[in-house]
Write a sequence for this structure.
């Protein structure tokens, strides 16, 4: 079901001039001031018609947000390279005729000059509002274009999921994010929530526990901390005292229930874990400290298939196939039963890498584990899985002995290496190349 | 040739190699003036998080990244060691 071409959707869900949209330099930024900043940037954008696309390289989250809103207001698409490395950005620029770059310096210059023009805040529903790029665990970069109606639709639900976890459903909500704005999760939670979700975002991007605590303390309540399991482990490991948090949002890697419970015990509030992918954006959430089942956003329907799960949502252009195998449960809920690409076959037997990982994590003394196939395409060899395990007090032999009690010997990882930490990238994910490097002890 | 490490820099180099499990890197071989992140040792923000935890345990203070000195402090082993020498709480 596609919207008529002429249809528009608002850039700001709430157009109240006094409502705060950001927190910057120790003070709220009301929407009226934000609009003036957007107008100033619009005045300095290239005056070209389609195809025009902005590569938003702003480091400052507020400037990123202003630049993003400016691009949409004049019908430009925003491109999100997977990194800021010059070659990656250049590849994206070369692949998009009519693209241009914007950075903190350019936005500062625009702010200094100013503009009294009004900002167009009716965005064509079918405008390609962003294009995500992933380096992926394997293969070439893929592009993920998203229409404005698609991101507006999913973000209205993200806002609902967060508000549902707050005692006061109508309060102004203040968001602090530890993730960068230019990847899909940071985009949804720190750029789109202030626009399509009517929340206010802190301009900073704190990294260390002490930074996170200081930035949180600046914000009024209710406070929402958008973060990842990696950042949460750092928070738990530090002696830092934290101000109370009302909602903690987690994504990018599966969060286990004990970590969720420990973090909410330290920071307070409710843990809302988001389920989605670069292909779909977020479409389900759960309160991980208290429940295992995911709850689908209103209007989303899952269709289990042999090769994965087809996701239907009213705001999608078309249904999207995910690799995850799910089990539907009553009340719009589901549980994940492994990814189909995680289904492995050894000597004719099938097992799930997710299941093997869970079994490893269940062994006392095992803190983290990653199970994967080093060479899934090799022919003529027994397809063994390998594992990296964080277990400071155990030897590989002890872990394997424990695992052997519940797992067919065909699926016992070889090698199983005890490592100090898993080779996560800066988003906390485990790209295949990092796993392989760790396996080769590089 | 890399410049000579001071005693404090050597101690920090050892902490970095141990905490981040940099197999194949010898602490004494870390150039005190080479970048720690991206180029140089090639550390990333997750390494920075790990390092901050280890530094807080060993030296008794919390690293901050959101002040203007951030880029300078993390630019090299030498600058990070100097920052630690100034801020350390434990002897």
């Amino acid at each position: 079901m596609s919207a008529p071409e002429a249809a528009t959707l608002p850039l700001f869900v709430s157009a109240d001039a006094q409502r705060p949209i950001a927190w910057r330099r120790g003070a709220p930024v009301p929407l009226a001031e934000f609009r003036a900043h957007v107008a100033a940037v619009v005045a300095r954008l290239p005056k070209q018609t389609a195809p025009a696309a902005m590569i938003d390289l702003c480091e400052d989250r507020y400037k990123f947000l202003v630049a993003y809103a400016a691009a949409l207001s004049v019908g430009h698409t925003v491109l999100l390279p997977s990194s800021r490395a010059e070659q990656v950005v250049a590849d994206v620029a070369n692949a998009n005729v009519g693209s241009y770059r914007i950075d903190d310096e350019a936005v500062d210059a625009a702010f200094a000059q100013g503009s009294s023009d009004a900002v167009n805040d009716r965005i064509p529903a079918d405008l390609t509002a962003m294009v995500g790029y992933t380096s992926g665990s394997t293969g070439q970069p893929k592009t993920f274009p998203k229409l404005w109606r698609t991101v507006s639709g999913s973000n209205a639900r993200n806002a609902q999921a967060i508000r549902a976890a707050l005692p006061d459903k109508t309060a102004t909500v203040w968001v602090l994010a530890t993730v960068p704005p230019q990847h899909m999760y940071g985009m949804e939670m720190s750029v789109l929530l202030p626009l399509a979700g009517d929340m206010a975002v802190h301009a900073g991007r704190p990294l260390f526990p002490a930074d996170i605590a200081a930035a949180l303390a600046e914000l009024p309540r209710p406070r929402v901390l958008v973060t990842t399991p990696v950042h949460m482990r750092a928070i738990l490991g530090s002696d830092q005292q934290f101000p109370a948090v009302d909602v903690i949002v987690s994504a990018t890697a599966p969060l286990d229930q004990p970590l969720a419970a420990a973090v909410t015990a330290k920071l307070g509030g409710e843990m809302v874990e988001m389920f989605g992918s670069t292909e779909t954006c977020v479409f389900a959430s759960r309160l991980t400290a208290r429940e295992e089942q995911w709850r689908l956003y209103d209007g989303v329907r899952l269709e289990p298939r042999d090769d994965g799960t087809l996701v239907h949502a009213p705001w999608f252009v078309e249904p999207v196939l995910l690799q995850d195998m799910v089990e539907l449960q009553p009340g719009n809920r589901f549980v994940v039963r492994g990814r189909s690409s995680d289904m492995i076959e050894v000597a004719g037997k099938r097992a799930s890498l997710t299941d093997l990982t869970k079994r490893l994590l269940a062994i006392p003394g095992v803190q983290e584990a990653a199970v994967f196939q080093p060479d899934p395409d090799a022919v003529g060899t027994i397809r063994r899985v390998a594992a990296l395990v964080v277990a400071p007090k155990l030897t590989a032999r002890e872990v394997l002995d424990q695992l052997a009690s519940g797992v067919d010997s065909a699926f016992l990882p070889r090698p199983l290496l005890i490592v100090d930490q898993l080779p996560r990238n800066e988003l906390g994910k485990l790209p295949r190349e990092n796993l392989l490097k760790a396996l080769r002890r590089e | 040739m890399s410049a000579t490490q001071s005693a404090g820099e050597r101690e920090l180099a050892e902490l970095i190699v141990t905490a981040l499990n940099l197999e194949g890197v010898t602490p004494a071989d870390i150039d005190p003036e080479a970048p720690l992140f991206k180029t140089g040792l090639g550390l990333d923000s997750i390494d920075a998080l790990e390092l901050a935890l280890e530094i807080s345990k060993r030296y008794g203070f919390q690293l901050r990244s959101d002040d203007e000195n951030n880029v300078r402090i993390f630019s090299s082993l030498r600058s990070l060691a100097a920052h630690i020498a100034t801020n350390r709480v434990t002897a």
